[in-house]
Each structure stands twice: as structure tokens, then as C-alpha cells.
Amino acid sequence: MIRIKFLLFLFMCLISVMLPSSLQAQLHHANRDLPCVNKNYNLLAHVAVDSTNREPLYSMEVLDTMIMKLNEFFSPICVSFSLCEFNILENDYTLGRVVNKPITAKQQLLELKTRFSLRRRINIFFLDFITTENCGTSTYRGILTPNDANIYVERTCIDSLAQQVAHHLGHTFGLRNTFDPETIELVDGSNCATTGDLICDTPADPFAQSTMLNATQAELDLIAQNLIDTTFYGGSCEFLYEIRDPNGQYYQPDMGNMMSGYPCKCGFTQDQFRLMVETILMSTINHF
Questions:
Q1: Fewer CB atoms < 10 Å away: N or C end of the chain?
Q2: pTM for this one?
Q3: pLDDT < 70 positions in the chain
């Protein structure tokens, strides 16, 4: 019976997944005009090598294809990207495997930044694995600090390469994840400005929340009997989570949102675009 309430939402999710990328993007920026900042950013690609043939993890052709997708994702605000440098991280595959020894993963990422990144540029490190991160890491609002526009992505991520980079560019331009494990955003949006991603046109998203955080005793009893689904998504971008918010409403997150934790990313919302524009206009990072 619980799943019946999700049928309409699941139908909309399937439509979004099945649409061409150009139409998917329209779902996230239709109905209103958006500001056009008319900026092109040069991306510096720092590519690690594999452990067998010492070949780059990604070729220039693959990154060129990624750039084309990024330009689609950010076109509503007239932001585009160019690959201005393809830098291979030496003949040392260990540079692409960030683990907690002999120094911490955080220290290794800092070392990569110190050795290879250029100031006032967006530096993207294409790595094999980062032990402490899930699908890479980046600095929130990094575009505002001359030496913090650094993005680290990993080959083991479930997202496509373009999705992963676009997600971290979102962080770099001032966006948070649509979810927050520490707060409970209500489905009705009444606390949207102080919980979750602090943006009100992104639906409440329970992704990464502990099932203990807001489950009722009745729901906990059902969980114990394996009668309620506490996973977040299925293989076809199907939202499965059956725990309701404190008001008793079912969550209906935007699984196609670029800042979500789901591998279904296809675009940003109006307010996300507007917040990125505000951040970009405050930045001194070079472009063109």
C-alpha cells in the first residue's frame, strides 16, 4: 500500500530518465528567464596514470566529450568551459590512489594541489581512488579563493564523469548537496531556508539520513520486520525510501538534480542557477 503513493512520482522519474539530455535540462530551468553571466572558464586537467601501462586514466578525447556535456549543463546561465591544459601526473600511479598512508588522504590531496595546481584557475584532478571520499571532493565556494578552485574526482564513482565534475563545479560555485544528514527538511517546504541545502525550489531529500533520525516507533517496528524499505534508490532511478517526514508526508526528492546523491543527475533548478550566478559574479578567478 505504501508504494502506491509513489506511483505518480516514480512515473515522473522514469520520464526524466528516458528523456534526451536537452529535454531533461529543460525540466530544471523552464518557465523563467535566468541571468546570463557570459563566462568561459579554462579547466586545467591533472590526470593520474594507471598502475599497469602508466597510461593516463582518461584521454583528451574523453575529456573533450565531458566538456561538451558540462557546457550543456551550465548553458542556461551562459557559463561554458574549455580544456586549456592536459597535465599527466608524472609516471607514478600512486599519485592517483589517495589512501591514508604513509600520510593522511587530506595531506595527499593538499600535496597534489601544492605541486600541480595553478592559482586563479579551476584545477581538476582525475584520480583513481580517494579513500575518504565518495565520488570525489571539492571546496565549497572555492571560486571565491584564488587557490581553492580545486576539484578531485575519482574513477570509481557511480556517476558519469560529466555528472561528477558538474556536481563539484556546483560546489565550487556555491551550491550545497540537496541533502543534509544532520537536519530534517520537511516535505511541505516550511523549513527549507534553514535545512537541507538552504534552497527552497529543491524538494526535501532524505538521502544519507540515518533511518533512526526521524522514523516513528511504528516505522522502526516495520523496519525490524523488514516490511519497510529504507534504501534510497533502485537501479532505474526509482526512489524507494518509505520513511515519512515528521509531518507524516512521503519524500519526493528530485533524483535528477545535479547536487543530489543519486546517479541520475541531469540539471540544476532555477534557484541553484541563481545562487551560482551570485557566487560567480563575486569571484576574481580568470576566465576566457
A1: N
A2: 0.88
A3: 1-32, 286-288
| 216, three cell numbers | 516513528
Confidence at residue 99, expressed as pLDDT on a 0 to 100 scale: 93
Residue 286 pLDDT = 66
Predicted local confidence at residue 288, as pLDDT: 55
pLDDT at 11: 44
Range of the domain at 131: 31-177+269-281
Count of other CB atoms within 10 angstroms of residue 273: 22
Give the pLDDT score at 146.
82
> Residues 6 or more apart from 68 whose CB is under 8 A from it?
none
Instruction: Decide if 138 is inside a domain.
Output: yes
Q: Enumerate residues 6+ apart whose C-beta is below 8 A from 279.
A: 141, 143, 144, 173, 174
pLDDT of residue 13: 43
